[in-house]
């Protein structure tokens, strides 16, 4: 039975009850800086029941119930577990809202299958930020990461080991975009189970192998895994779409044996990530910035754009943008050029994840460039 109640948390070595002072109370004066996590405290917390209040708490208050990255293992009629990860980025709330709706549906009932919930960066969610200053990106720390070793990478690796031993049926990581994008599913392998899982969300799929260190790429080594991109946060249809997908996964007995039909999906492959050079200032409105970006850029997401399309203007003596391929090698000259102060693409391509959020551009990237992929 799915009943929120007093949680008991456990590691591999001990079992105890949390004290009331384990919860962080809201403070009147806060900085957007996360205290350093010591290696001694990087064992992921695990619970076998849900805390009181989880089903109706707001995302910005979630840190008062769940103070740090935490796993919740819930039993179901089928033992093979569905793993669901939310809030790896604190400003992407749709996954949390969809999980709340799912738990509300099964409140007082047995789940169709086992469900493990992972709540990521609740401290950043408190301030509606992707991550806090001093934190790594929680979706770049998983096994295979290119980031330096960190306590966060240690607990991410431990979570993978924990879930590998639990025989996961499928993994779902729920995200939002800050820019104007359609809903789509991302996969890291082209096996039929991955394709069927992605197609359950919709016909638009993106296959990617870069950036490294994502949750879905780590879990793809031992189960079908997908990342859901559910549009902008705060949109009810995004929450409903994610909820329906998760509910369908709970009821899915197995993946179809036959390959996916070509007409059922449109698959794109990311071929480059575009970032702004670290020493280049940029803006969508400040003409004194090194790079003045086109304020209509986000309308280009998932649109074929021709060679010569202008992304912005610059007074820099060098190219202000950097493009890298899936191996992290520079490929800027293959995709971008500066002509008479205009930053242009050099070949037909399709961008995704273009955003007007200047903070996200610096923390993540300007966009990805994609090409159509045959099934």
Report on the structure:
The structure is a single chain. With 375 residues, this protein is α/β, with parallel strands linked by helices. The protein has two domains: 37-264, Aminopeptidase; 271-373, no CATH class. Helix content is 19%, strand content 26%. The protein is built from eight helices and 19 strands. Strands 3, 4, 5, 6, 7, 8, 9, 10, 11, 15, 18 and 19 form a twelve-stranded mixed β-sheet that branches. It has a five-stranded mixed β-sheet with strand order 12-13-14-17-16. Helix 1 packs across helix 6 (236-251). It starts with 8 loop residues before the first strand and ends with a strand.
CATH topology of the largest domain: Aminopeptidase
Poorly predicted sequence stretches spanning 5 or more consecutive residues: 3-31
- Rg, please? 21 Å
The CATH homologous superfamily of the largest domain is termed Zn peptidases
Architecture per CATH nomenclature, i.e. the level-2 architecture of the largest domain: 3-Layer(aba) Sandwich
Q: Roughly how much helix do the residues carry, as a percent range?
A: 10-25%
Q: Report the portion of residues in β strands.
A: 25-35%
* CATH class value of the largest domain: Alpha Beta
How many domains? The number is 2
For the termini, the CA-CA separation is: 41 Å
Query: Largest sheet at a glance?
Result: 12 strands, mixed
Mean pLDDT, to the nearest integer, reads: 90
Overall form: globular
| Total count of strands | 19
The SSE string, one letter per element, is EEEEEHEHHEEHEHEHEEEEEHEEEHE
Number of helices: 8
Helix- and strand-based class?
alpha/beta
């Amino acid at each position: 039975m799915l009943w929120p109640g007093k949680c008991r948390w456990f590691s591999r070595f001990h079992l105890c009850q949390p004290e009331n002072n384990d919860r962080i109370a809201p403070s009147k004066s806060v900085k957007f800086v996360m205290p350093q996590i010591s290696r001694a405290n990087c064992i992921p917390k695990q619970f076998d029941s849900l805390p009181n209040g989880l089903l109706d708490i707001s995302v910005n208050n979630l840190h008062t119930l769940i103070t740090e990255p935490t796993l919740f293992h819930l039993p179901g009629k089928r033992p093979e577990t569905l793993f669901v990860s939310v809030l790896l980025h604190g400003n992407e709330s749709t996954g949390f809202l969809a999980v709340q709706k799912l738990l509300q549906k099964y409140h007082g009932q047995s789940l169709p299958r086992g469900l493990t919930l992972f709540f990521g960066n609740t401290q950043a969610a408190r301030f509606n930020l992707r991550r806090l200053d001093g934190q790594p990106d929680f979706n770049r720390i998983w096994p295979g990461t290119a980031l330096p070793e960190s306590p966060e990478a240690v607990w991410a690796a431990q979570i993978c080991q924990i879930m590998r031993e639990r025989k996961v049926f499928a993994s779902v990581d729920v995200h939002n975009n800050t820019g104007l994008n359609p809903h789509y599913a991302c996969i890291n392998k082209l096996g039929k189970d991955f394709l069927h899982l992605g197609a359950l969300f919709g016909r638009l799929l993106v296959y990617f192998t870069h950036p490294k260190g994502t949750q879905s790429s780590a879990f793809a080594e031992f189960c079908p895994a997908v990342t859901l991109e559910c549009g902008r946060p705060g949109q009810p249809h995004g929450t409903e779409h994610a909820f329906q997908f998760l509910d369908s996964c709970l009821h899915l007995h197995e993946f179809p044996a036959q390959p996916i039909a070509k007409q059922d999906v449109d698959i794109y492959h990311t071929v480059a990530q575009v970032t702004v050079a670290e020493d280049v200032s940029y803006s969508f409105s400040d003409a004194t910035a090194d790079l003045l970006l086109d304020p209509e850029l986000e309308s280009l997401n998932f649109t074929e754009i021709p060679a010569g399309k202008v992304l912005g203007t610059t007074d820099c003596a060098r190219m202000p943008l950097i493009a890298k391929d899936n191996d992290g090698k520079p490929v800027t000259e293959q995709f971008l050029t500066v002509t008479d102060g205009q930053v242009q693409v050099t070949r037909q391509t399709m961008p995704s994840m273009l955003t007007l959020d200047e903070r996200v551009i610096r923390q993540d990237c300007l966009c990805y460039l994609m090409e159509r992929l045959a099934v």
